[in-house]
Amino acid sequence: MNKVITISRQYGSGGREIGGKLAAKLGIPYYDNELITRAAKESGFAESVFENAEKKATNSLLYSIAMGMSSYGNQELGFSNLSLDDRIYLAQSNVIRKVAEEGPCVIIGRCADYVLKDLDNVVHIFIHAAMPFRIERAMTIDGVEKNRAEETILKNDKRRANYYNYHSGEKWGLATNYHLSIDSSYLGIDHAVDSIYTFVKKLEK
Length: 205
Hints:
By secondary structure, this protein is of the alpha/beta class. Helix content is 56%, strand content 11%. It has helices at residues 15-26, 33-43, 47-53, 65-71, 84-102, 112-115, 131-142, 146-168, 184-187, 189-204; strands at residues 4-9, 30-31, 105-108, 122-128, 180-183. Strands 2-3-1-4-5 form a 5-stranded parallel β-sheet, with helices on both faces.
């Protein structure tokens, strides 16, 4: 296995579970909240700041990703003048690049597909699902009340889309940004894992 796999996902689609099971099946590291812990440790920011970044994302076009990347890590070039959210994103992106350089792994969310878009050894996956499937998972896994489930799902998708669109300049969920898109409500979680596993293994040949 010589591939880094990024998984973007709709809320309630089971993307996190799929990613964990896929990493276990491939015998490679899995990064989700571990990225936050590591980014916090390396940057000096509190973990809670990273956890809240996506929740506060807006559609603002004021941020220039190109300028941010060129100044990252060097306060003399303007890193200290970026907003807190932008600095958090850049610190997290730095960690994503580091874990990708360390070897094969599965990375969940956090614009990882965009951050690693120029690398050849990366496979980008998007997980989506039908609303009834997502509602059931939101209720059983996250404890969301039935009458608030769909609203919660749409709100979380909106935040993820805003966060991704804001930082990448790309459109979240657009098929052309990914190598493989899977409907987990059609396949089921385990079959989705098997499908991605087969896809990745075929690429190695």
